[in-house]
Each structure stands twice: as C-alpha cells, then as structure tokens.
Amino acid sequence: MGRRPEVFVRALSMAEGRRLQKITRTAKNPVKLRRAIVVLMSGQGQPAPDNAYLLKATEDYVRDVIHAFNERGFDALDPKWRGGTPSKISEQSRDWICVIARCDPRFLGRPFSCWSLSKLRVYLIDSGRVAAISIETVRRNLHERGVTWQASKTCKASSDPHFASKMRRILDLYDYPPAGGRVVCVDEFGPLNLQPRPGRAWKPRGRPARLRATYHRDHGVRHMIASLDLTTEKIHFRIR
C-alpha cells in the first residue's frame, strides 16, 4: 500500500497568517485553537503526519481540518456545537425527584433522617422511578427546580388551648399598664440544658422548613422563676 499524498493548506496571505497567529495566542476555545494551529503549521510546510504527531491527533483529523479551511476559510475553525444526547429522564420523573428529596426518608422506609445525593439516587433506581441516573444529574435537576440543601430551624409552641387569649391580655398590659399600678412579668426559663440542634434537608429555595423541638425530661430539670419589675427594671428570680 502506497503512502497517502500529503495535504497542505492553500497559500495564505500575510493578513491571514497574522490572523491565525493572533488566534493561536488569544483563542479561549480549545477546539478553535487546535484547528488554527493545524492550519498555521500546514501553511509553514509541515506535512500532515508530523502535524498530527505534534498535536497528538490522528492524520485524518489534520487532513479534515485542512480540507475544511481550504473550502470555507476561517469559518471552518469555529466548532459547530450540537444539542447533545436527548435526555433519558422524563419531566414526570424530574418532578418525582424533587418530591422525594423533600420527603422524610423514614416515611419511605429508609433508616436515616435526610437524603444525600447518592442515597437519593439509589432510592430512585430501586423504587423504579428511573432506570438509571447519575449523581450529577440528580444534583442538577434539584438545582434547576430551586431545591437546595438548607438548614432547618426549630420552633416551640404552647399546647395550652387558651394560649392566644392569655398572650393578648399580657401584651395589652405591656401597652396599656394600669394607672398608678405596676406590671410584673413572671415567666419560666428552662430546662437550662435545652439546646435544639437544627437539621438539614432538601427544600425549595428561600423556604426552609421549621421543625418542632421535642425532648424528654427523664432525669428531672432545673427551673428559674423570675419576675421583672417594669417600673424599676429589676429582675427577681429563684432557681430550683
């Protein structure tokens, strides 16, 4: 089998040579940079095999770039991007990913309280929601739909059915104290060691969930009975 005939770029003008040199110095796109180097080296008399060896490319790639430049000029240096492989995940499956990520894993029979991306991926495949999916696809899908990894805050509420009416009476005393009288505030502070720890979960951006703080008093607690005199601004308390 004889040697293939060498392929060279057409004769380049001074302006084209300077333009190619500028592209090799300033091009940010690696494809355009690589093609410009091929054309410039070919214009300097470098044969296709040597050109391919220096660029760690195939000879067919070098010849295709040279032929394309001879036919279309500098337009052949710009890459023609395509849409890529069609998505294999349906829109319904994408919606389910967000719904499941926002659920407590324990409700779905999992022995942990929050999802990691890898655990969420395994559950999606095991449950048949998707046939196959990568961790990066899970992360990108959650990000595109505004579901981010956020810290959850705790809150406590009274179980007293008359809490609202009592609260309004107290607030009215703050705003409208009795003429010639005193308003004394008495409250319970404790247990002293209660330190709610916020958790984390996948939630819609800007709307982190608030979790009710619950605890057990198995070994007793300490209470502080305190009173605040709004007139003298003094606090009187007792710990027991």
Order of helices and strands: HHHHHHHEEHEEEEE
Q: Please give the radius of gyration in angstroms.
A: 36 Å
Compute the number of strand runs: 7
Give a quick account of the main beta sheet: strands, pairing sense, barrel closure: 3 strands, antiparallel
Strand order of the largest sheet: 3-6-7
Strand content: 5-15%
Outline type: elongated
Overall tally of structural domains: 3
Assembly status: single chain
Describe the fold and architecture:
With 240 residues, the chain is an alpha+beta fold. It has three domains: 14-77; 91-145; 155-197 and 209-239, no CATH class. It is 39% helix and 14% strand. It has eight helices and seven strands; from the N terminus they run αααααααββαβββββ. The protein has helices at 14-26, 30-43, 48-55, 59-72, 91-101, 117-126, 135-144, 163-175, and strands spanning 147-151, 153-155, 184-189, 200-204, 210-212, 224-229, 234-239. The strands form three sheets. The chain has a three-stranded antiparallel β-sheet with strand order 3-6-7, with no helix packed on it. A hairpin with a 4-residue loop joins strand 6 and strand 7. The N and C termini lie far apart (101 Å).
